[in-house]
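Recap for those who missed Tuesday's class. We walked through two folding examples back to back. For each one, the amino acid string is listed first and its predicted structure tokens come directly after. Nothing is annotated here on purpose, so try labeling regions yourself before you check the end of the notes.
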Amino acid sequence: MSSDTNNETPRIALLSVEEAKAAAEAVGLPVFMADLAVFQMMLQHPPLAKALNDLLSTLLWGAKLEPRLRELIIMRLGWQSGSNYEWTQHWRVARGVGMSEEDILGTRDWRSYEGYGPADRAVLAATDETMEIGTITDATWAECVAHVGGTEALLEMVIAIGNWRMFASLLRSLRVPLEEGVTAWPPDGKIPPNA
């Protein structure tokens, strides 16, 4: 069973929604973030929560990297790392940017999924290489340069991989639970082998 499920006690207590909203407001973090369990925990350290939110906001809303490519990266990282929270939260985000269930589920075994184009395959290869060897190989980088976008998109791709890789680790290490009423591992409840 994944170490970031509702079945295990968080390693750091979550603030109540009201406490989290007050802490968020005090550091200028959007108060709606206090509805998320990860920020109910992170707001135990408000300046750190603010810094994390600023990076997330840039990558999610001010981005040059196509949202589809970003979400492919996140879903692959969530699956490969066994992060229930990351997979579950970004399932909704990926669907919200227009991705089909098939394309999202394809991240489980992307090399055998036929629905991906060259840009999709390039970012997924970059993600796997970063997870496996800590860097992107020259051959994969050339594919990213050819298919992902310009300098800003490439920088965001590398930062997105690192950011959500970090989040997968912190979510599992701190045992951040899913929010009440959220179903784990959508759409079918299948859990990766390493979770």
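Example two. Treat it independently of the first, because the proteins are unrelated.
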Amino acid sequence: MTLLRQQFTQALELRGFSPHTINNYILAVARLSRRYGKSPDTISDQEVREHILHLKSEGISAATCNLHMAAIKSFFKSCLPERPNPVGLTSMKAPKHLPVVLSLDETIRLLTCAVNPKHRALLSIIYSAGLRLSEAIHLRPADIDSHRMRIHVREGKGGKDRYTLLAGPVLETLREYYRCYRPETWLFEGRHRGMPMSPRNVDATLKRCARRARLGKRVTVHTLRHSFATHLLEAGQPLQVIQSLLGHRNIKTTTIYTHVTDRMMADLRSPLEAFTLTPNRAKEQGAEHD
């Protein structure tokens, strides 16, 4: 590791960034360095600007471009304090898309397509507790509180601990899984004993189950988290409760789930449904105005 990279890594660690974020920031700055074939501390503001515009021209999403800009700003602020924000980098406006959400029936179909007890327990706990992928694979057996029916999520996003729900059926699924696998260090261990299950393995498992369930939707691990929040909202749970269970710092993040859900849509009627539009009716209305 170069002295510059070590300095940047230590600065991010001192700021409390997660290992995943630190790795992404290091890779982003390394990509900038590779583009010009020189150390990032010798790259000019104009070259930084051209690099970001090049990323955008390649069709990279606004969210990913924002990550690169945040990484570059953090690098300059940490390693070159005299240039804390090259070219005045500001976040791009990202398009806001509604999250893909499964219905309750689709969710049950997906979970029942997980034949392996380990996979069924994993996907069930992600959905039923609204977990992020990184939170699920870093659960430990001791984090499951069967007495209070809670799950202790340690150092979630932003380094925050929280409690979330442990559903009764999921507890039974976990017990069946535990009898078969006897995990020790991590609740869901990977192929190597003592190591957590890899994100890629979880993603591949979910995709196989989604194909078996024939959902016809692009399903990711985060889709289960979105579905958890939406189903709670449909059941009448307050937004503040959902915010706490999901571990959102700001309730504005949670408001994405206030989109019109399938159940809400079924109960709505357009104002036009009170009228019957026919050609004769239209002529009568025209004659009255004449």
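Answers for example two:
The first strand starts at residue 144 and ends at 145.
Residues 19-36 form the longest helix (18 residues).
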